[in-house]
Amino acid sequence: QKEVEQNSGPLSVPEGAIASLNCTYSDRVSQSFFWYRQYSGKSPELIMSIYSNGDKEDGRFTAQLNKASQYVSLLIRDSQPSDSATYLCAVFSGGYNKLIFGAGTRLAVHP
Amino acid sequence: NAGVTQTPKFQVLKTGQSMTLQCAQDMNHNSMYWYRQDPGMGLRLIYYSASEGTTDKGEVPNGYNVSRLNKREFSLRLESAAPSQTSVYFCASSEVGRVDQPQHFGDGTRLSIL
To answer: Do B107 and A8 touch (CB under 8 A)?
Structure first.
């Protein structure tokens, strides 16, 4: 089992729809969770961080964390073609004392 | 507003050659990291430096060495390049000496080894 798992996609959504990206992790003592966006050929860019159970909203982005079920998700409302990118989930693993990245989910928003 | 600067951006090497990837940050961050990114495998940590004067191995350290030259600079060296080291290399930094803080990435070095 991979430490951080994401569906590789592509996840295809129409413009204006809600895109839902999911991530599961294996280390139960993980404390910090991050979502990065990476455009093709570019570097990862931090878009959200979440540390407590529940929802955290920032503009069109909402991160959701459920530590009991060991998953974290990212919702993108009113999706735009400019949101088309790969989204990387990253989890700080207390057991390994490092940030572990999932392989990423590719999102395609079509007009 | 440079952030994290990596050089070079592209490099082609022959098997057995050596080279050093350079990384510098101007955000006064304590911690710096080197990752490699391969298709379908996400980012894998090669080495990190929690603070000036310290370095530690990450997930895939074999074939690499690092130097934390000062607080700003963290270099990655390939002593004898192998085709398996063809990858995109990212340097990152974070504010405090803990890896649970958000990391800020450089633009990457695209390295091909023939």
So the answer is: no
Nearest residue on chain A to B42, judged by CA atoms? A103
State how beta strands A54-58 and A45-50 pair: unpaired
B contacts of A4 (beta carbons < 8 Å): 42
Distance CA B8, CA A105 (A): 28
Angstroms from A92 CA to nearest CA on chain B: 5
Q: What is the DSSP letter of A98?
A: E
What is the rounded CA–CA span in Å between residue B52 and residue A50?
28
Q: pLDDT value at position A97?
A: 63
What is the full DSSP assignment across B82-113? -GGG-EEEEEEEESSSSTTS--EE---EEEEE
Tokens, residue B57: 């191995």
Q: In the block, which residue shows the tokens 């990476």?
A: A38
User: pLDDT tens digit string along A13-49?
Assistant: 999 999 999 999 998 888 889 999 999 999 999 999 9
Do the bridges between strand A4-6 and strand A98-101 make them parallel or antiparallel, or are there none, so unpaired?
unpaired
Whether B42 sits inside 8 A of A102 (CB atoms) is: yes
